[in-house]
Design a protein that fits this description.
The structure holds 3 protein chains of 3 kinds. Chain A contains 16 helices and 2 strands. Chain A is mainly alpha-helical. Classes of the chains: A mainly alpha, B mainly alpha, C alpha/beta. Chains in contact: A-B, A-C, B-C. At the A-C interface, α1, α11 and α12 of A face α1, α10 and α11 of C.
Chain lengths: ~325, ~325, ~500
């Protein structure tokens, strides 16, 4: 007891909690600095290729799906959970949308059905986790197999192309010269970020993730909150699926393979923790951005494509290591 | 009969007994569907279809009991397959190539353990990052190409027979029985349970937690490396796309076997063997019954859920007994 | 008799904070030595230095006159010093014997464990201690008291000459406390030195030979128990006189607030019927395991019940979850502050407002920052939560301040009936009387408070009326002059 109190006395004196200091010390700030550094280095080394609108648009387009899924993963990580099924749910949702479109279902309905399919997967995940308290790792691992399996069964493993042109055009639409998918994702993320910080129904997730028992005893509807978290995560995968299906003009059961792993990596990089109760949408966005810029830089700097995966893995490794080192130092001081 | 049941039940506990029952039931059903199901020949096929995952599951069991997780195994496998392939085709003697490869695989485990123990990175993230890196290394080393053209003596490891048993199965049996016995009865291995349950308390009891983590992660990588070598030998080729997603199948087999993934310190090798057999039989059942094999993944997913419900039921039972 | 272990000029700082200041203390062979002091006095730090968990900065440890270094728990063990932890750490699904001999199992030359010998060794230990625990039972199947005995057996198996216990009785029932102290006395008779930390002075006076008082990292004094009194010890602990430990009781009690009838769950507890009145503090006394917390949790909707009705202001209400209870004005402050009470990784401010988030909302379920700041600073002021930083993480607060945050969180919900479960467990004397005062002030505003406490002096000192629980039933209702420890013990045990 005494020791704990003493240690705390120290941290109280050393933590300066003025708002400015808190922002400066935050994870988002340090990630932002790293990203700026990467941008500066690339602008110096490859000014023409890197600083072009086309390049930034390409980076943006490449990040879209990962952004949505990293945001979803951030939410389930805040809830002290994990969602391994997002990649498979994306595939199932894509296949559903494509099948509907090929059956002649009107485009808006097909899109809604695709997202609803994803939502249903999330509801099953959430129900099993919240109601029966089964480990999220196992539940979503099962869903990962089941959703991917269903997508494969529905398509027998083939591509579903030949979708209506008007649907395929959606992904290439521009509004004020900005591609519509980028706008959609930006809007979704901004809304989510604001709601998660300021809107009670979503902000409660921090309580539920930090201490589910205390949250329940404090009168929060923990089961409902947990369920909605998994549903949001899946729904975001559904949105990603619609965007991907439209951009690539096909539905495919192989979409989103290992997307969950990239999303987890980005979310954790962005400050979400396996211990629950922490993480932010902004952090997830920065995490995805950093990984995307590094990949982009690798290509621009003429890195051998064969080494690309190894290098991005290595960078993740370094990032995680540096972060752990920093946290350890913080704990000690 | 009843007596036999209870003696089995007391030895194995609720979970393993139930799983054994399911396995026997499945086998009987399959026997009615196909007279070939309960033949040695079919068993060989059935088991060889899951042998790489089975070998990795042995190491994974120890990792999960110790309170960790190792996602990197599925990348160590192709990495090792390619490294052995490259060494052998470069003229390095087979034994030396295998030795070097195992050392390289071991070093992956060492890095995993260092990340977990020294830097305090969550093992999920540490091994996830290693998984991406090592798979990337496999791509880079092979230039994305298949590597083949191995000497005949190398094929023995993956394709040979001893006493009529395929060498990989024999390796699995030796490893499972050997490590299973050690895990149950050996002082050093018993420590894995204690660090899995509460590593701080284990440290206070004088257990070298750092050493144990290096040991379990090292062993897991080593076995994944061995699986990679066997894969190269069995297929006569090595490619970086080997074993994509295998880490999750391995974890599923271990969890179905009753090892507790939520909290360390619980599980045993016999359960893992049953879990591995279960996955292999389901896999095979689909192949034999002519049902669209695409359904297999769905059934695997559902079975994993059923297994975890069983584990939960067993735990509740135990809790009730403890209270009453 | 010379000192077995002598510590001189022990200093320990965590960064700039000096936790122990030149402490000199000696432990005799075969004595029971109690260490007392408020939270933050440095008791646990001192014990952890002896046990090898922390390293001292300066100073010297002498074992039988020889200077020794105790740099790790293993060093400590080798010197015959064992620490029985406050938070028990047995591996649940290993057997008792394996836990005792963890890492020291008898093996053959190849390192394989000799099971029969292992179990025999454990059985011998238990026979020696005269306790009835089966060596093959799983550690997780034992209750806390028995797990503690296993820890002591472990210490004995290490041939410990000094056994250190950190609040050994904090979660034991009175019978279990008795049997534990029986064992402590037997250990002393065999020449083992037992050092223990306790907040409970009655126990200290019952078993200790000598008492050492620490305050703010300094050793105030070591006194033979026979030569001192509890008021002297308290004075030494707090550095001032606490004339009146408890606030005066209420003279006037209002009308009925809540009626509970026939609350029960299977054969665990039954026929729990009582009334809570406006302006009174109702105490629930009894032994640990008398189902007081369980029945109140059932009332609160957080534990199952099979029968019972609740009326608030004469109107029947249905409670299926804590949410329903809170809506009806019934709040429950948990005894398990760490794992069920507070959000350790969130700020004080969020911890306080969580019980009634609707109060800090603007339109459309969006938060209004101003409302939160105002409410929180008001509560922090009135409860004297230190430091006054609403954006500080709760885990950085001392135990007493955390408990005040917990109380603040429920005050924010503006309860009509507040049930508090062990409101001052693990809280230092100063914060304790602040909490008592806060509860007393609370009832003067016209609400009803129900106090569950295993500390009988607290029940007697604080409560206007007391219900005594025994084995899941109410055996007595005491009020006025009947509220004495003797009466409570009579109905709680007989």
């Amino acid at each position: 007891m005494a020791s704990r109190d003493n240690k705390s006395a120290v941290s109280q004196s050393s933590i300066s909690d003025s708002p400015l200091m808190r922002i400066l010390r935050s994870r988002e700030t340090s990630l932002g600095i790293v990203i700026v550094a990467v941008i500066v280095v690339l602008s110096i080394l490859r000014p023409a290729a890197f600083l072009s609108l086309a390049n930034f648009e390409a980076i943006g387009n490449g990040m879209l799906y990962d952004l949505l899924m990293a945001a979803g993963l951030t939410i389930v990580l805040i809830l002290w959970g994990i969602d391994l099924s997002v990649g498979s749910v994306l595939a199932l949702s894509s296949v559903t949308t494509a099948l509907m479109l090929r059956a002649g279902v009107p485009i808006p309905i097909a899109i809604v059905m695709g997202i609803l399919t994803a939502l249903a997967c999330g509801a099953v995940n959430g129900y099993l986790i919240a109601r029966f308290r089964i480990a999220p790792f196992i539940v979503t691992l099962s869903m990962m197999a089941i959703a991917r399996g269903l997508a494969t069964v529905f398509t027998s493993g083939y591509y579903l192309s030949g979708l209506p042109d008007s649907f395929n055009a959606l992904g290439r639409l521009r509004f004020a010269a900005i591609p519509v998918p980028i706008i959609v994702v930006a809007v979704v993320l901004i809304v989510l970020d604001v709601l998660l910080r300021k809107w009670k129904p979503l902000h409660q997730m921090y309580f539920v993730g930090a201490n589910p028992d205390a949250a329940h005893l404090s009168g929060l509807k923990t089961q409902r909150v947990i369920m909605s978290g998994y549903m949001i995560s899946s729904a975001l995968a559904g949105v990603a699926a619609v965007l991907m299906t439209s951009r690539l003009s096909m539905g495919f059961a192989g979409f989103g393979l290992q997307a969950e792993l990239r999303a987890i990596a980005a979310a954790v990089l962005g400050g979400a923790s396996f211990a629950g109760g922490s993480g932010s949408i902004l952090g997830a966005v920065l995490g995805v951005t950093l990984l995307a810029f590094i990949n982009n830089g690798f290509v621009l700097l003429d890195g051998s494509p064969n080494w690309q995966q190894a290098v991005s893995g290595l960078i993740l490794l370094v990032a995680v290591g540096v972060d752990a080192f920093r946290r350890r130092k913080e704990r000690r001081s | 009969m009843k007596k036999l049941f209870y003696s089995i039940y007391n030895r194995l506990g609720f979970h393993s007994t139930a799983l054994l029952g399911v396995l026997i039931g499945l086998s009987i059903i399959m026997r009615f569907r196909s007279p070939y199901f309960l033949t040695w020949f079919n068993f060989e096929i059935l088991f060889m279809g899951f042998i790489l995952e089975a070998i990795m599951a042995i190491g994974m069991t120890l990792v999960i009991i110790s309170g960790g997780i190792d996602l990197s195994v599925s990348s160590v496998l192709p990495f090792s397959a390619i490294l052995t392939g490259l060494l052998i085709t470069a003229g390095v003697p087979v034994a030396l190539a295998v030795g070097i490869t195992l050392l390289a695989a071991l070093s992956v485990g060492m890095i995993n353990a260092t990340l977990k123990i020294v830097l305090d990175v969550h093992p999920f993230i540490a091994t996830l990052a290693m998984m991406l890196t090592v798979r990337g290394l496999a791509v880079a080393m092979s230039g994305g190409q298949s590597i083949s053209g191995f000497p005949a003596e190398f094929a023995f490891l993956g394709q040979g027979y001893i006493f009529g048993i395929p060498v990989p199965i024999l390796i699995f049996i030796i490893l499972a029985v050997g490590l299973g016995t050690l895990l149950r009865h050996h002082k050093f291995f018993q420590q894995i349970y204690f660090i899995g349950y509460d590593s701080k308390a284990a440290r206070v009891s004088g257990i070298n937690v750092t050493l144990m983590n290096y040991f379990v992660f090292g062993l897991s990588s080593l076995l994944a490396g061995l699986a990679g070598i066997i894969a190269a030998s069995q297929y006569g080729t090595a490619h970086n796309s080997f074993a994509i997603g295998a880490e999750l199948k391995v974890i599923a087999a271990v969890v179905i076997g009753g090892t507790n993934i939520v909290r360390g310190g619980e599980g045993n090798m016999f359960g893992t063997v049953l879990g591995v057999l279960f996955m292999a039989i389901v896999f095979n059942a689909f192949a034999m019954s002519g049902i669209d094999t695409y359904w297999q993944e769905i059934v695997n997913g559902i079975m994993l859920l059923v297994a975890i419900f069983m584990v939960e039921a067993a735990r509740k039972r135990q809790n009730r007994l403890a209270l009453g | 008799m010379g000192a077995l272990l002598e510590l001189s000029n022990i200093d320990k700082s965590f960064h700039e904070n000096r936790v122990l200041k030149s402490v000199n203390i000696s432990f005799m062979a075969g004595e029971v030595h109690a260490i007392v002091g408020e939270n933050g006095a440095g008791k646990s730090t001192l014990m952890k230095i002896i046990g090898g968990i922390y390293r001292r900065d300066t100073g010297e440890l002498k074992l039988e006159g020889t200077p020794v270094n105790v740099d790790s728990p293993i060093d400590a063990m080798n010197h015959g010093i064992s620490l029985v932890h406050q938070e028990l750490s047995l591996a649940d699904n290993r057997t008792v014997a394996q836990n005792i001999f963890c890492n020291r199992e008898p093996t053959n030359r190849l390192g394989f464990i000799k099971w029969s010998e292992l179990y025999r060794m454990a059985q011998d230990l238990f026979d020696d201690m005269a306790v009835d625990i089966h060596p093959k039972s799983l550690a997780g199947s034992l209750n806390v008291a028995r797990q503690q005995l296993v820890e002591i057996a472990k210490a004995l198996s290490l041939n410990a000459r000094i056994i250190i216990m950190d609040e050994p009785t904090s979660s034991l029932s009175e019978q279990e406390v008795d049997s534990l102290y029986g064992i402590v006395e037997r250990l002393r008779d065999r020449g083992v030195t037992v050092v223990f930390i306790s907040h409970k002075l009655t126990e200290v006076f019952r078993v200790a030979d000598r008492i050492t008082v620490l305050r703010d990292g300094e050793l105030i004094g070591t006194l033979p128990t026979a030569d001192t009194s509890s008021s002297e010890i308290i004075r030494m602990m707090v550095g001032r006189n606490i004339e009146d430990l408890y606030p005066p009781k209420t003279k006037e009690v209002g009308d009925a607030l809540m009626d509970v009838k026939d609350l029960g769950f299977r054969n665990q507890f039954s026929d729990i019927s009582f009334t809570v009145k406006r302006g009174e503090i109702l105490g629930l006394a009894g032994l640990v395991g008398a189902q007081r917390s369980e029945s109140m949790l059932a009332l609160f909707g957080a534990a199952p019940k099979t029968s019972g009705t609740v009326e608030v202001h004469g109107k029947p209400i249905t409670i299926k979850s804590p949410r329903d209870a809170i809506a009806a004005g019934i709040c429950y402050l948990t005894e398990d502050r760490r794992s069920k009470g507070l959000f350790q990784t969130m700020t004080v401010s969020w911890n306080i407002v969580v019980t009634s988030l609707k109060k800090i909302l603007a339109t459309g379920s969006f938060y209004q920052g101003r409302k939160r700041q105002d409410a929180v600073s008001r509560l922090m002021e009135s409860l004297d939560i230190n430091p006054r930083r609403p954006e500080n993480w709760v885990q950085n607060l001392s135990g007493g301040n955390q408990q005040k945050v917990l109380l603040g969180k429920w005050l924010f919900a503006e309860p009509e009936i507040l049930i508090v479960d062990e409101p001052t467990r693990g809280v230092d004397v100063g914060a304790k009387s602040q909490i008592h005062l806060a509860l007393r002030e609370l009832v003067t505003t016209g609400i009803g408070v129900v106090v569950i406490s295993s500390e009988q002096p607290e029940i007697v000192g604080l409560c206007d009326r007391v219900l005594v629980f025994k084995e899941g039933r109410i055996t007595a209702e005491l009020s006025g002059d009947e509220v004495t420890q003797e009466e409570i013990v009579k109905y709680a045990t007989v």
